[in-house]
Amino acid sequence: MLTPPFIAPARFDDPAEALAQVRRIYDGSVDHLRDTLQRYVAGEAIGQHVRACYPFVRVQTSTVARADSRLAYGFVSGPGVYETTVTRPDLFADYLTQQFTLLRRNHGVALEVGTSTQPIPVHFSLADNDHLEGSLPADRRLAMRDLFDLPDLAAMDDGIANGTHEPAPGEPRPLSLFTAPRVDYSLHRLRHYTGTAPEHFQNFVLFTNYQFYIDEFIRIGRAAVAEDSGYERFVEPGNVTSTKGQPLTGTSPLRLPQMPAYHLTRSDRSGITMVNIGVGPANAKTITDHIAVLRPHAWLMLGHCAGLRNTQQLGDYVLAHGYVREDHVLDEDLPLWVPIPALAEVQVALEQAVAEITRVEGYELKKLMRTGTVASTDNRNWELLPSRNVPTTPERRFSQSRAIALDMESATIAANGFRFRVPYGTLLCVSDKPLHGEIKLPGMANTFYRERVDQHLRIGMRAVELLREQRPGQLHSRKLRSFAEVAFQ
């Protein structure tokens, strides 16, 4: 086995020193893999299996006591040994420092850092622009599988997040929702789906299902970085970056990726990322599965919906406080009997943002916005389902659930937020009323989009500003944590 020099486990009382040790192990492992792969691509014969492993972080406690019982994270659930593998300490430096600091403060125990036995897949060691395999002939590309470790799906499932993970006897309990291979997998998927590097993602994320919102976000974002707005850069697919007083950098892609992302950044990563997820719950699950590893402070859905009540008007807003999940994409991960509650901090911020941007408040706000249940379906043409001689119909179910709006993505985004402990919220805009004969047609839709998109987007951005003013510990509240929760936020 061809491996880098082994770095034995060591104990640290200083979180900064623990992070530095994580960096040393990770950088040494990645350099080893990159160097060996480059030599292999250059034609050198590699006679041994090549392996390098992730660093791990471990803590051990003998008591249930902790410093502050009000915290939602930063502590382990009881006596025992807890451990996780770690990747990309450059990207997660601030996050890891915070988690290490909280563990030290709450338990007063040392942080043990060492080299794990979990191999780093060679693909996860490549830099952003490395495409070394493309120059290999077919036989040497095939032989790579014998020489280097490849991604192992068994090492990156979501059992911890889903609450189904059961450590084997003598195995440490998890410190984090995600193992290092799971994080690396998602970081690579984010590049593929969004066309931007994970480094650009911010801690507040807006999702939309219409390009109209993205067009407006681009206009607002470019203008914001040209002013003294507190935002530093605006990043578009291809990592095309606008900075005040500087020429554009990056290269626009020949075609947009499947779910393009745009980032209005701040120095502390508290800016806004906006992603056009397109239509459907599958896309909504896919992108939130991967953004979740970045541990954002909140994500919000801003999209269009069908209004289900006759009293609603086109352009009215819907603030979701509950969800009917007929989207089905999370049925295997999050059982339907699990409720998806509204989060007070997010609800208050969204309602306040609507009042501020529309300049309507109090009782008058009820004319413009309804709070209630949103149903999400995986059938875009649910209206065409048979309605005669059938035991139930979508219309009947929506009525029984007291739903006030219907879309295809909101329940998925909220449910995955609940599942991954990411605060979530939904503010939709009524674009049609199919149960009442007001079907979305081109002329009606174009007028609606022009009149509402800018206002709706500004409401979402204002809600982010209000959430940003809160402490992260207040936003990541205990209501999203399970019985024996992992320590990392």
Commentary on this structure:
With 489 residues, this protein is α/β, with parallel strands linked by helices. It folds into two domains: 10-189, 2-Layer Sandwich (amp nucleosidase, domain 1), CATH 3.30.1730; 195-477, Rossmann fold, CATH 3.40.50. Helices cover 33% and strands 20% of the residues. The chain has twelve helices and 16 strands. The chain has helices spanning 15-41, 93-107, 138-147, 159-162, 180-194, 211-226, 281-291, 344-358, 394-400, 410-419, 442-468, 472-475, and strands at residues 10-12, 53-61, 80-85, 111-119, 173-174, 204-208, 233-236, 240-243, 246-249, 261-265, 272-276, 298-307, 317-326, 369-377, 403-407, 424-432. A five-stranded mixed beta sheet has the order 1-4-2-3-5. Strands 12-15-14-13-16 form a five-stranded mixed beta barrel, surrounded by four helices. Strand 14 (369-377), helix 9 (394-400) and strand 15 form a beta-alpha-beta unit. The longest helix is centred in the first third of the chain and has 27 residues, at 15-41. It starts with 9 loop residues before the first strand and ends in a 14-residue tail after the last helix. The relative contact order is 0.12. The model has no long low-confidence stretch (mean pLDDT 92).
